[in-house]
Amino acid sequence: MNAIVAVDENWAIGKDGDQLCYISTDLKRFKELTLGHPVILGRRTLATFPGGRPLKGRRNLILSRDPAFLPEGAEVFRDVESLLAQAPEDSFIIGGESVYKALLPYCDRVYVTKISRSFPADTWFPNLDEDPSWRVGREEPPLEDGGLSFRYVTYERVK
Can you tell me the distance from the alpha carbon of 50 to that of 144, in angstroms, rounded to the nearest whole number? Predict the structure, then answer.
């Protein structure tokens, strides 16, 4: 499996139930990478999508313990084990914090957008630079969009 995430300088990913910022270039890249692949996400991440609806062109696999949560157009799993039994190898984990932490051990690759700025935050992604089980596989030159500088870094699990 893969994960895809945008982080700030402190590996923060969100505040008050939303992303730290929206970068048009990065949203396009997210769509290009995930289109046609299953995406795995939590209930609160789904709520941040337009209309709170699943992403089009992708099989949406939602991890939620809430038995009343049954969104149209998505498959809901109540625990990691049942999700893993159904999640294809080419799935992308797309958030939030608890879903990333639960499923990162099953990932071989993580696509990280590193934003060169620090934001107020209340949710974080594990710092892969400090984790010896991950190494940088590819790092692209810095880009800028909307006044924000960022770069794409692809991490690979050390075998």
Answer: 25
